[in-house]
Amino acid sequence: MKAVYLEGIATGHATFETEAPDWDRWDAGHSPQCRLVARNGGGVLGWAALSPVSKRQAYAGVAEVSVYVAAVARGLGVGDSLMRALIEASEARGFWTLQSGIFPENHASVALHLKHGFREVGRRERIARHHGVWRDTVILERRSSVAGVD
Fold first, then answer.
1. Would you say 109 and 12 are in contact if contact means Cβ atoms under 8 Å apart?
2. Residue 42 CA to its chain's centroid (Å)
3. How far is CA 148 from the centre of its chain?
4. pLDDT (tens digit, 9 = 90+) per residue, 60-93?
5. How far apart are CA 137 and CA 37, in angstroms?
6. What share of the chain is helix, strand, coil (3-state, %, to 5)?
7. Domains along the chain?
8. Using CA atoms, how far apart are residues 83 and 66, in angstroms rounded to an integer?
9. For residues 84-103, b (16+ Cβ closer than 10 Å) or e, as one string?
């Protein structure tokens, strides 16, 4: 998983992070539920996970999406499979809203999210510096039609 994350970091368009965290820090920042790994034999082709957006109980069903695909597997449907499975797993566990903040230059990630029912709800302009350059993020959100419906 770490190698795939490092490949994402190397693109310059996947995350504000500049290095992969150690396991304990990564584990602490992600929900223990809905962690998926796509494998081919012993190799990792990609992974997906959720991060809580808040510790407040009112937001218990809202999570941020991370999907990373190995360079050798990009364009082969791995991201599509991971996103589909992540949405199904999240709804089964009561998550009603999934969100993502994506660099607008990451066209593949934006397209993947839109394909799976996310909609653009905003843009954060010059939200943070990445390698000394101000970057924007597009905010995408998906509201479940299954979980949190009452």
1. no
2. 23
3. 21
4. 999 999 999 999 999 999 999 999 999 999 999 9
5. 25
6. 30, 35, 35
7. 2-143 (3.40.630.30)
8. 9
9. eebbebbbeeebbbbbbbbb
